[in-house]
Amino acid sequence: MPNVRSSLTLLAIGGFLASCAVRPVALEPGKVMDMAKISLMPGSYSQLAGWSTDNVAQVLPAFIKSCDRLSKQQPGSAPLDPAAAGANFGQMRDWRPLCQQAAALPLGDDGAARQFFEGNFVPVLVGSKGTSTGLFTGYWEVELNGSRTQDGSYQIPVYRRPSDLVDGKPYLDRAAIEDGAIAGKGLEVMWLESPDDLFVLQTQGSGRIHLPDGSMVRLVYAANNNRPFIDINQMLLDQGVIASAQFSEAAVRAWMHDNPDEASALRRKDPLYVFFHELKGDGPVGYQGAVLTAERSLAIDHRYIPLGAPLWLDAHDKYRPVALQRLVVAQDTGDGITGPLRGDFYWGSGKQAQARGSDFFADGRYWVLLPKSVATQMTASLN
Predict the structure, then answer these.
(1) 29 falls within a domain
(2) How far apart are CA 191 and CA 152, in angstroms?
(3) What CATH code is carried by the domain that includes residue 236?
(4) Which residue range is the domain that position 272 belongs to?
(5) pLDDT per position as a tens digit, 84-141
(6) Are residues 319 and 360 in the same domain?
(7) CA distance 257 to 202
(8) Could you tell me the pTM of the whole model?
(9) Dihedral of CA 160/163/169/172: which sign?
(10) Based on the domain organization, do 182 and 249 belong to the same domain?
(11) Which helix (H) or strand (E) holds 142?
(12) CATH number, residue 48
């Protein structure tokens, strides 16, 4: 679900920049992404600050959801996540028995959950280029007002995926779409109240839309136009439009509301455009295909960290007395979550989640919990 996040020096914008659309955005043609190397160092649970006080049982539903996404058709020799090619995180034969054990545990029994993880997994510290400290931000599912029909204050369309959009090939950019290039073709899935509502929905990748009749529908990422992301929020910061000391998601929204013409021109500098579809049932759904769990799902760069793996997160906000020391599961990714030491913490849905996630900007590190058989092979290779 996440997107590109600016490296703000004084205050993070939080999930506002974190989560543009659950799928990674195509790179500019000819651009080669620098693949940083990952290092893994086996450790012990005594090294995990906060391990003894975390309610470990709360992560089991998330872990089981990820286990359910593992294809039963894949051979035992298949890796947990083929995209995470920088290290050996084990094969299906290493993970499936543990998934079965997890599913049989009594829900809510913290002692049983802790015994399960300590007895079957080894925490392995993730590092890169001589450090294990990385950046951790937050994202959430937005809540907006909307209508299924264009009426009254609802004049901003949310489009579904066009039939002529081809994966991997650049499509119409934001400016062309805003100028009406696909209007009137029956692609409107919802109507919102303002362009900045749409922009926030696109940066977060999913949202709960409250309709005039009191009902609610959930919109989730369907596709993007395969255009590069341009960080207009960083432009606002660099140009001093909003003072750095006051820079926040709320400040950006307020500026866009008060300066509609300038905001429209600025948004058009970002060619990336996201399309949505309505999700029936629970959500939001992360990149792995599992429904995300509030405060237990983490978005990572799954070129380095495998989707579905449990992770011990130890992150401390740079500007507020907020610390996260808890067991989470890698279930999501995004174009702005890049590198082996980068994570985006899912806070949940609604205003409280937004308030907690929008300014979360933390230094931290994480350990991936690997099956003991995999960790044993790793230790042998290090000796």
Answers:
(1) no
(2) 10
(3) 2.40.240.50
(4) 141-279
(5) 988 999 999 999 999 999 999 999 999 999 999 999 999 999 999 999 999 998 988 9
(6) yes
(7) 17
(8) 0.81
(9) negative
(10) yes
(11) strand 134-147
(12) 2.40.40.10
